[in-house]
């Protein structure tokens, strides 16, 4: 379980435009104190026009089931008990794109 893996996760009921329910999310950290930092994914490609998002194309290398948008602005910490199963692994170049967006989001 580590950074760049895509897991199916259970997210609590979201409010407003927050992602919720069972959905894929990128693990952005390994487990720390039985929690992980995740970035939710959506298959709604029109969301790629929002700030702090990254379009990820489905490839045989990453095993994503569909083109997806990483909603980096919705980054959050969840309990490892919410992880259902690993479904994909991003390439190092895809992880670097996510890293750049996270740095921009937090002004680093």
Number of helices: 1
Q: What does the average pLDDT come to?
A: 91
- Coarse structural class: mainly beta
Order of helices and strands: EEEEEEEH
The oligomeric status of these chains comes to single chain
Shape: globular
| CATH top level assignment | Mainly Beta
Strand content: 35-45%
Helicity level: 10-25%
- The unreliable regions are none
- Please give the alpha-carbon distance between the first and last residues: 25 Å
Short description:
The chain has 108 residues and is mainly beta. Helices cover 14% and strands 38% of the residues. Strands 1, 2, 3, 4, 5, 6 and 7 form a 7-stranded antiparallel β-sheet that branches.
Describe the 3D structure:
Strand 2 and strand 3 form a beta hairpin. This protein has one domain: SH3 type barrels (Roll). The protein contains one helix and seven strands. It is mainly beta and about 110 residues long.
Task: Furnish the topology, listing elements before pairings.
Elements: E1 5-11, E2 21-27, E3 35-42, E4 53-56, E5 68-71, E6 76-79, E7 83-89, H1 92-106
Antiparallel strand pairs: 1-2, 1-7, 2-3, 3-5, 3-6, 4-5
């Amino acid at each position: 379980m580590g950074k760049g893996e895509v897991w199916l996760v259970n997210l609590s009921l979201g409010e407003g435009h927050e992602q919720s329910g069972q959905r894929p999310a990128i693990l952005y950290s390994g487990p720390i104190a039985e929690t992980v930092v995740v970035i939710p994914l959506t298959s709604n490609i029109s969301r790629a026009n929002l700030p702090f998002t990254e379009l990820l194309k489905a490839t045989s290398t990453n095993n994503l089931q569909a083109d997806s948008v990483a909603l980096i602005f919705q980054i959050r910490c969840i309990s490892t008990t919410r992880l259902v199963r690993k479904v994909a692994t991003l390439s190092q170049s895809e992880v670097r794109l996510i890293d750049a967006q996270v740095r921009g989001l937090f002004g680093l």
